[in-house]
């Protein structure tokens, strides 16, 4: 499948990419090859293939939820790089103007 430079430019604009003329030509060929391959894959008859949501016969891979004791406030801040009176101290993310 052959793509025009205008089609590639349109796709690049959608992706917010700025491409040079050389890149437009290069990507036109590469995208054309990808689309040609996609057409070949779509032409394969898969009507006899059952839907396969998973490739492995897994039923439930999650562990059961179990109640556990949690850390105390003091334990939570024990390894903090900077703590003050039981609270984590972090660098301010707002400037003086409140923005």
What does this structure look like?
This protein has helices at residues 5-14, 21-42, 73-77; strands spanning 83-84, 87-88. With 99 residues, the chain is mainly α. It has a domain at 5-43: Histone, subunit A. A two-stranded antiparallel ribbon has the order 1-2. The chain is flat and about 65 Å long.
Features:
99 residues, two-stranded antiparallel ribbon, 3 helices, mainly alpha, Histone, subunit A
Topology:
Blueprint: H1 5-14, H2 21-42, H3 73-77, E1 83-84, E2 87-88
Antiparallel strand pairs: 1-2
Helix pairs in contact: 1-2
> What is the general shape?
flat
The beta-strand count equals 2
Q: Can you identify the CATH class of the domain at 5-43?
A: Mainly Alpha
**Unreliable segments of 5+ consecutive residues:** none
CATH architecture of the domain at 5-43: Orthogonal Bundle
State the helical fraction: 25-40%
Output the structural class.
Answer: mainly alpha
Beta-strand proportion: under 5%
Question: Briefly, what is this?
Answer:
The chain has 99 residues and is mostly helical. The protein is built from three helices and two strands.
